[in-house]
Amino acid sequence: MNGTSIASVERGISTVLEWLRQAAYLVAPLVLRIALALPFFRSGLTKWDGFLSLSPTAVFLFEEQFKLHILGGVYDLPAPDMLAFIDALAEIILPILLIVGFATRFSALGLLVMTGVIQLVVPDGWANFHLPWATMAVALIAIGPGALSLDHLIAAIFRPRKPRGVA
Q: Is 30:149 a contact under the CB 8 Å cutoff?
């Protein structure tokens, strides 16, 4: 190979890598939003028996099974009926908001807080579940919703536009 063909191969590789970077930049936030939303949404679906009617199992879990593990002690959840209802609502609403990319950072923060509480209730799930969920939530808070989101669309609609002829 001569110098010209090596330079041509390098340009080709650079072009492919740049295209890959741009595609990943476009798709990564959407994939992160979906990956974080799905386990919470699926969990939320199991907690309902009908419209705004919690399943008896969900109530039982919050009253009898779920306990806070703090500093070596095990404690009952405060207001378990109310917490079950709030949790079940959040596990449906926040993932839907994430998937469509609306209030993305707020939704990711809500799921990050939920992940922290889940960690206190199920401390053994850290490596397999809680750490990846927390990582995805923090990444979404840091990078935002991405271009494939309602947040991006709304920002584009309401972004002040420069008058024509102004540099």
A: yes
Determine the Cα–Cα distance for residues 38 and 64; give it in Å rounded to an integer: 26
Predicted model pTM: 0.87
Burial class, 39, CB count within 10 angstroms (exposed 0-12 / middle 13-18 / buried 19+):
middle
Each residue's pLDDT tens digit, 65-113: 999 999 999 999 999 999 999 999 999 999 999 999 999 999 999 999 9
Q: Residue type at 27?
A: V
Q: Which long-range contacts (CB under 8 A, 24 or more apart) does 91-96 make?
A: 91/40, 91/41, 91/43, 91/44, 91/47, 92/41, 92/44, 92/45, 92/48, 94/37, 94/40, 95/36, 95/37, 95/38, 95/40, 95/41, 95/44, 96/37, 96/41
User: Which residues are 67's β-sheet partners?
Assistant: 76
pLDDT of residue 161: 77
Record the tokens describing residue 19, joined without a space.
């295209």
Tell me how far apart the alpha carbons of residues 57 and 129 are, in angstroms, rounded to a whole number. Answer: 22
Are 146 and 31 in contact by the 8 Å Cβ rule? The answer is no
Q: What is the DSSP letter of 164?
A: T
